[in-house]
């Protein structure tokens, strides 16, 4: 694994120190820079048919059994890991790739990886040294690829390590979910780079048994909002998938608004039993209801771009807050919430009363969780435990009469 570039490490450290220094600001603790809109880049395929093909054997019963059958498991496992022996090392990958010259001195190569019987795949890249400006594209055969810069992959891995995870899994970058049993990986290196300069392996993939087209075999529902909270909840809800040790899971969550009306930051609230670490957050891929519709069992889902920063987790409340690395599609809804100074005789001290709700006069269309649901109680507990550092305000500010909304 290539060491984290020094300048990238300094940027991450500086960002963390800046956030820490503002952790008790009244209104905000987030950086002002907003994420760029997610875009799937339609890359011109100058390569024609993919020459390099790697086909795994049919999954063995032992592999399929690596999918959890534990009824107590609170997250739905939808995929299991499979080793890719033919691509285990960078040398293996280099031997597979046949390079084609492109314009301006660039070169590109592609390979197709098949896991028979898969409904969808995620492939893992283990990065070594690669030329600056290298681009990776992921797609199903004949479909529009999603392009990811090598620098973004390196930043994702550096973020995992910076937040304390230096395990082998933290040094893997998981591709977007690719529908079907075959994933095409295309690599483009810049002018002046040699094919021998590319050091990347594909040691493992995740074999998914369901797809977004099948709704991940469940509703978008209850990781962030309870089933009885009302139909409006679905306007801000989304499905998510994430991968740990090659096993892929499906959960749900919802966009929540920050309290600064001048910003639209893609904070996402989910369950801590799903996302409990930066490593898991880095693999998080959201699936949005098409056209801004409610996220229901029958909703058509569109994939977003993977990646998130883990901000806060509360085990007692079973809530996790992350910031998506890429903005949701235009028209996405954000759940509003209000903070008041209401106190309960059952509580000690000046804790805030939090309810997920659509604030009066909000200009944006907001999702809503009904006041009084278990979700509101969990959100309230997490807010008082530290979530306020990200969404704005403090328990003390609220107790003194702050009744602001998002």
Summarize the structure.
The protein is of the alpha+beta class. 17% of the residues lie in helices and 28% in strands.
Give a written overview of the molecule.
The protein is an alpha+beta fold and 406 residues long. The chain folds into two domains: 52-65 and 73-208, Jelly Rolls (Sandwich), CATH 2.60.120; 213-399, Thrombin, subunit H (Beta Barrel), CATH 2.40.10.10. It has seven helices and 23 strands. The protein has helices at residues 6-21, 61-64, 90-96, 150-162, 278-283, 374-391, 395-399, and strands spanning 52-55, 76-83, 100-101, 107-114, 120-127, 135-139, 146-149, 172-174, 178-179, 182-189, 200-201, 204-208, 237-244, 247-256, 267-270, 285-289, 301-303, 308-314, 319-324, 334-335, 337-340, 353-356, 366-367. Strands 2, 5, 8, 9, 11, 12, 13, 14, 15, 16, 17, 18 and 19 form a 13-stranded antiparallel beta sheet that branches. Strands 1, 3, 4, 6, 7 and 10 form a six-stranded mixed beta sheet that branches. Strands 20-23 form a two-stranded parallel sheet. A hairpin with a 2-residue loop joins strand 13 and strand 14. The two termini are 42 Å apart.
């Amino acid at each position: 694994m290539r060491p984290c570039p020094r300048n990238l490490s300094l940027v991450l450290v500086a960002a963390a120190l800046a956030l820490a220094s503002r952790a008790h600001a009244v209104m905000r603790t987030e950086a002002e820079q907003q994420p760029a809109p997610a875009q799937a880049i339609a890359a011109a395929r100058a390569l024609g048919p993919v020459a390099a093909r790697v086909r795994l054997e049919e999954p063995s019963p032992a592999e399929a059994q690596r999918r959890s059958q534990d009824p107590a498991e609170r997250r739905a496992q939808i995929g299991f890991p499979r080793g890719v022996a033919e691509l285990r090392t960078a040398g293996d990958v280099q031997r597979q790739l046949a390079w084609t010259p492109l314009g301006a001195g660039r070169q590109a190569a592609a390979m197709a990886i098949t896991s028979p019987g898969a409904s969808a795949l995620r492939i893992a890249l283990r990065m070594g040294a690669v030329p600056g400006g290298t681009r990776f594209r992921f797609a199903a055969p004949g479909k529009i690829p999603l392009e990811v810069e090598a620098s973004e992959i390196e930043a994702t891995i550096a973020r995992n390590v910076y937040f304390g995870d230096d395990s082998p899994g933290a040094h893997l970058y998981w591709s977007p979910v690719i529908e079907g049993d075959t994933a095409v990986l295309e690599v483009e290196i810049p002018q002046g780079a040699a094919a021998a300069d590319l050091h990347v392996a594909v040691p493992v993939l995740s074999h998914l048994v369901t797809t977004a087209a099948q709704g991940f075999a469940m509703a978008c529902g209850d990781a962030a909002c309870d089933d009885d909270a009302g139909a409006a909840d679905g306007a801000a809800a989304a499905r998510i998938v994430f991968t740990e040790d090659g096993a892929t899971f499906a959960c749900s969550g919802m966009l929540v608004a920050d309290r600064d009306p001048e910003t639209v930051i893609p904070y996402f609230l989910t369950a801590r039993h799903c996302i409990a670490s930066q490593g898991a957050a880095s693999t998080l891929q959201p699936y949005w209801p098409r056209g801004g519709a409610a996220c229901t069992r029958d909703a058509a889902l569109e994939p977003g771009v993977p990646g998130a920063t883990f901000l806060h987790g509360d085990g007692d409340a079973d809530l996790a807050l992350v910031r998506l690395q890429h903005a949701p599609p235009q028209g996405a809804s954000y759940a509003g919430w209000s903070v008041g100074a209401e106190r309960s005789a059952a509580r000690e001290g000046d804790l805030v009363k939090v309810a997920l709700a659509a604030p009066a006069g909000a200009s944006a269309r907001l999702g809503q969780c009904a006041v009084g649901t278990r979700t509101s109680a969990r959100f309230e507990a997490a807010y008082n435990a530290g979530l306020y550092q990200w969404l704005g305000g403090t328990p003390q500010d609220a107790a003194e009469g702050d009744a602001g909304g998002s």
